[in-house]
Design a protein that fits this description.
With about 170 residues, this protein is mostly helical. It has helices at about 10-25, 30-45, 50-55, 80-105, 115-130, 140-155.
Length: about 170
């Protein structure tokens, strides 16, 4: 391992620090606001020394506490929050279709297909978010921009973070 001061940090090292911060968040050592600030700082750092500062006031994790990198199973393309949203959309769609079907059945004819106003726009929004990546995966530029907006909301006088500047 290179111990030269000022050695540049890799993306894998940044992701390992973020995973450790996640463990500290789950253990209750950090609140969500401080976690977000530290994650933004991690992705803005360029050297290993700066990464060490982020964890300097937190206890070292044991090998058992350190989370192994999450490996995606082949075929699971969608993050868990998108699967939850899609499940909610599907459940509501079935409910409104059943209600429409019962109304049509009691009326003796097919009535106006009003479920399209529930199913269509909501489904379109979900598809748009999947295609465009509207919700950012941690470590991406979109995620960094979202964290910067949150930081600006917390501290309006804070300078924006430029990930390309050392």
């Amino acid at each position: 391992m290179d111990i030269t001061p000022g050695t540049r940090a890799s993306d894998a090292e940044r992701n390992a620090i973020v995973a450790q911060l996640g463990t500290h968040l789950a253990d209750g050592r950090l609140d969500l606001g401080e976690y977000d600030l530290r994650v933004a700082k991690v992705y803005a750092t360029t050297t290993r020394d700066e990464l060490a500062v982020v964890l300097s006031d937190l206890p070292a994790l044991t090998k058992q506490q350190q989370a192994a990198p999450v490996e995606r199973k082949p075929g699971t393309r969608f993050p868990v929050w998108q699967r939850i949203e899609a499940g909610s959309w599907l459940g509501v769609s079935v409910i409104v279709l059943v209600i429409w079907g019962l109304i049509s059945l009691t009326a003796g004819e097919l009535t106006y297909f009003w479920p399209m106003w529930v199913i269509g726009p909501w489904g379109a929004v979900l598809v748009f978010r999947v295609i465009t990546g509207w919700e950012a995966t941690p470590g991406t530029q979109t995620h960094l921009r979202q964290l910067q907006k949150q930081m600006k909301h917390l501290d309006p006088h804070a300078k924006p973070i430029d990930p390309h500047q050392p």
